[in-house]
Design a protein that fits this description.
Shape of chain A: globular
CATH class of the largest domain in chain A: Alpha Beta
CATH superfamily of the largest domain in chain A: P-loop containing nucleotide triphosphate hydrolases
Order of helices and strands of chain B: HHHHHHEHEEHHHHEHHH
CATH architecture of the largest domain in chain A: 3-Layer(aba) Sandwich
Distance between the termini of chain A: 59 Å
Strand order of the largest sheet of chain A: 6-9-10-3-11-12
Low-confidence stretches of chain B: 1-11
Radius of gyration of chain A: 25 Å
Low-confidence stretches of chain A: 1-11
Mean pLDDT of chain B: 90
Oligomer: heterodimer
Mean pLDDT of chain A: 86
Helix content of chain A: 25-40%
Distance between the termini of chain B: 8 Å
Structural class of chain B: mainly alpha
Helix content of chain B: over 70%
Largest interface: A-B, 44 and 36 residues
Number of helices of chain A: 18
Shape of chain B: globular
Strand order of the largest sheet of chain B: 1-4
Number of strands of chain B: 4
Number of strands of chain A: 24
Chain lengths: ~525, ~325
């Protein structure tokens, strides 16, 4: 509704993004249904919602990967040409996805100017590129050496290079999809600071994250989506974590349940005998001399920042770190240090790895095959795969883990939460004595998160020993009986008493760790 | 996309389901079309003698394409089948005059097995990319056959030796019976055994399979061993059919074998495919070549069309998976 005064085009009065009546239909489903949303220039606007709420589709339409079925999108007053990524880029939109598109073997400068090298009569002019690179760095408030090899930079800096690439192409709108999912706390803070300084330069930012504290911290306004529809858009001050969760779920629950899980944990538990003990676990220049003992029915959480060695530690226990060494006792008997997953599985150890899609599941197979692939022999006769037996086992496990789709669904077609349930069904199929779960709630919505946490508790109450790693420290606190804090490859603190297990305490020790 | 508002009933006959179906089974539609064309061009096409004749032409490529299907499903590639095929033909022909024929043929299969195991070890233990490992080993196998035979054919004048390649049981060529048998066994193994399931799992996600406790390297190597044996059986069939073994026969056959598999719709990226697809792919290829012959199309042009069809089939595969993945 802006009136253009002749000659002077005032961007500030025109909204950066104006979405009206936007619909996107896939077959019989509406992924976006009648979305109306206006985002002002220079605003940080967050989109939150469960998986499948329609955020990705909306981002896809803005970035030109998806064409809407009906409705309009105006960028600074001009209607977007739909479904053409180049047109979106021309309109000033740059999208930074969770999976970065950095060329790891090129330098920082080359990455920023990827596909747009500044050249003079056919020769690349590094001098002029470095000048421009310097300008971009100042604009972002960062200092990354121009000749650094991109692959050797931290994830956060790689992300910043990607943002600089967008800015170099004169982007006025930045779309960030889960930018902090793989960053640790200091990196995350650095990125948020950079985003704030970009806002001051008039850049509009559309921010998508599952991390609600972060959203509350950075946003000017927040839009909650549910089932393809917009629920509400309000300024940040009008939201709380609880009210966002409530809006996402359509009913008041969520945080209460995490609290309930935590309360249950306060009861005194009778743990069984020690099932697993490791000592002197070392991977040269990664982790040093770490020990752990766990009893039946116990849940031990491992707290620590990304890079503290927590994932490497559990991978070593599962036989996946070739350079690891240590000693291991299973049910009191010393066993050979595992040199492969088969050995570890033979000891009764199971691992649900952090990367569901690449290490956990075979996406092109159905749930039944995925759940049974840990031991096809169990569901076969004379080498022949018995589909009925396999279905029976898979259904029983899937039911108990609350899988909401039939077991002959391809893993690819499941939501993140359901994929995680299939993965847990798979790794518990062989009734392990020790279950290790690495980032069990990454990228899944709050409802599924709660279910997964409750399941871990339930498995423990049946006598399984459970080791949990999560970047979501609230969850570690909620679910664990005991927490080990790692820092820089060492075990720096063991928190045993309920009153000392809290997020602040874990962070305190995680940041304190010794030098290396 | 999961549950969203406005979900209309999911009838099995909706337009998009029909579209997905035809993408997935496009090769079947194309195959039926080709048969119709063949019948129009040559009314006697569907007569038993004609079909048996066509399938005896397919026997050699068909048997090799079985092993190739296994290798492609685990996400590998075997460029050495032409070399193994030629080396086996030479070895078996040279031995057939010196020892009992079944023993000579067994030696040929053993040779294929050993060649395949070498490929498997190169790919798994030494981590040589499959394309390079098998292209290199194939060159070695061909070269070894040339050295061994001094580039001269070994002739075998013995009806018993020729029975496998050009004999009949009733009106059915022995090679067709063998092909049908191997298609059936390999299809059943792939579709219904735990071994087959494991291959799909590895082709779909090797890391997840390893973390699930599968003996991934051993299973991968086993597919190259199977491919080697299949190539050897084909080598035996050709030696038997021609009554001679010659080292220069394998030059272009590898491409035909890969063509048969990918035209059927087995994916080059692993994890997807099946023997029935390979049966249709091979049949498609051989009938097409008969149609071309009956139109008196020169072999040069046939080669051009074949190349185009392979590329088209792979393009369709990638397009289909991009569509269906949505």
């Amino acid at each position: 509704m802006s009136v253009e005064t002749a000659g002077s085009y005032q961007t500030s009065s025109v909204p950066a993004i104006e979405i009206t009546g936007l619909m996107k239909r896939y077959g019989q489903f509406y992924a976006n249904y009648d979305i109306n949303l206006t985002i002002s220039a220079g605003e940080i606007h967050s989109l939150v919602g469960q998986n499948g709420a329609g955020k990705s589709t909306l981002l896809g339409i803005l970035s030109g990967r998806v064409s809407p079925t009906s409705g309009t999108v105006r960028i600074f007053g001009e209607e977007l040409q739909y479904g053409v990524p180049r047109a979106s880029a021309r309109a000033g939109i740059a999208t930074i996805y969770q999976e970065l598109t950095i060329a790891p073997n090129l330098t920082a400068v080359e990455n920023v100017f990827l596909g747009r090298l500044i050249a003079r009569s056919g020769f690349v002019s590094f001098r002029r590129m470095k000048e421009r690179y310097g300008e971009l760095c100042r604009m972002m408030g960062v200092d990354i050496p121009p000749t650094a090899i991109a692959g050797e930079l931290s994830m956060a800096n790689q992300q910043i290079l990607e943002i600089m690439r967008g800015l170099n192409r004169n982007a006025r709108i930045l779309i960030l999809d889960e930018p902090t999912a793989s960053l640790d706390v200091p990196e995350r803070n650095a990125l948020l600071k950079t985003l704030r300084s970009l806002r001051e330069k008039g850049i509009t930012i559309v921010y998508v994250s599952h991390h609600l504290e972060e959203v509350l911290e950075i946003s000017d306004r927040i839009t909650v989506m549910r089932n393809g529809e917009k629920v509400a858009t309000k300024p940040r001050e009008h939201w709380t974590k609880a009210s966002m969760v409530a809006a996402m779920m359509g009913k008041e629950m969520g945080l209460d349940i995490i609290q309930t899980i935590a309360d249950e944990a306060n009861y005194e538990y009778e743990f069984g005998d020690e099932v697993l003990r490791v000592e002197n676990v070392t991977i040269p220049s990664v982790i040093e001399d770490i020990g752990l003992s766990i009893r039946q029915g116990e849940i031990v959480g491992i707290g620590g920042l990304i890079g503290s060695g927590r994932t490497e530690f559990v991978r070593a226990i599962f036989g996946l770190e070739p350079h690891s060494s240590g000693r291991m006792w299973v049910e009191g008997r010393e066993v050979k240090w595992p040199r492969g997953p088969r050995t570890a599985m033979g000891y009764g150890i199971a691992l649900a790895p952090e990367d569901r899609k690449h290490q956990g599941l075979v996406l092109e197979l159905d749930c039944r095959d995925n759940i049974n692939m840990v031991d096809f022999g169990k569901v076969s006769k004379a080498g022949f795969y018995n589909k009925n037996a396999a279905s029976a086992i898979a259904s029983a496990l899937a039911d108990r883990f609350g899988l909401t789709r039939p077991v002959d669904t391809l893993a690819r077609n499941l939501s993140g939460g359901n994929q995680q349930k299939v993965l847990l069904s798979k790794v518990t199929n062989l009734r392990p004595k020790v279950l290790i779960v690495d980032e069990p709630t990454r990228g899944i919505d709050i409802g599924a998160k709660i279910e997964v946490l409750k399941l871990l508790r339930q498995l423990a109450s049946e006598g399984m020993a459970v080791i949990v790693i999560s970047s979501e420290l609230e969850e570690v606190v909620a679910v664990s009986h005991r927490v080990l804090v790692f820092s820089k490859g060492r075990l720096v603190k063991e928190l045993n008493r309920k009153d000392e297990i809290n997020v602040a305490n874990i962070l305190h020790h995680a940041f304190q760790g010794g030098h290396r | 996309m999961s549950k969203t508002p406005g979900a209309v009933g999911q009838g099995p006959l909706s337009i998009s389901n029909l579209y997905n179906f035809s993408l997935r089974y496009g090769v079947v539609v194309a195959f039926i079309l080709l048969i119709v064309i063949s019948v129009i061009l040559y009314p006697g096409f569907l007569r038993a003698e004609n079909l048996l004749n066509i399938y005896s032409q397919l026997a050699i490529i068909g048997v090799m394409s079985i092993g190739m299907t296994y290798v492609l499903i685990i996400g590998g590639l075997d460029m050495s089948v032409g070399g193994i095929y030629a080396a086996t033909a030479v070895l078996v022909a040279s031995l057939a005059t010196k020892m009992p024929i079944p023993l000579a043929m067994l030696a040929g299969i053993l040779l294929g097995l050993v060649c395949g195991i070498i490929n498997g070890i190169l790919v798994t233990r030494f981590r040589v990319p499959a394309f390079v490992a098998t292209l290199g080993s194939g060159s070695i196998f061909t070269g070894a056959a040339l050295v061994y035979s001094k580039a001269q054919p070994f002739f075998v004048y013995d009806d018993a030796f020729q029975w496998l390649g050009s004999g009949y049981i009733g009106m059915v060529p022995v090679s067709v019976i063998l092909l049908a048998l191997l298609y059936t066994i390999s299809g059943v193994v792939l579709a219904y055994t735990t071994y087959g399931r494991s291959l799909y799992a590895i082709g779909g996600n090797m890391e997840a399979s390893r973390l699930s406790g599968m003996r991934v390297n051993r299973l991968i190597a086993s597919t190259y061993a199977i491919s080697g044996m299949c190539a050897a059986i084909s080598g035996i069939i050709i030696a038997s059919r021609l009554g001679q073994g010659q080292a220069n026969i394998g030059a272009t056959i590898t491409l035909d074998v890969i063509a048969a598999v990918v035209i059927g719709g087995t994916s080059l990226t692993g994890g997807q495919g099946s023997i029935w697809r390979t049966v249709i792919g091979g049949s498609f290829l051989i009938i097409l070549s008969n149609v071309f012959d009956s139109l008196s199309l020169s072999p040069y042009w046939q080669s051009i069309f074949k190349g185009m069809i392979i590329i088209g089939a792979v393009m369709l595969d990638f397009y289909t998976r991009a569509k269906l993945a949505k």
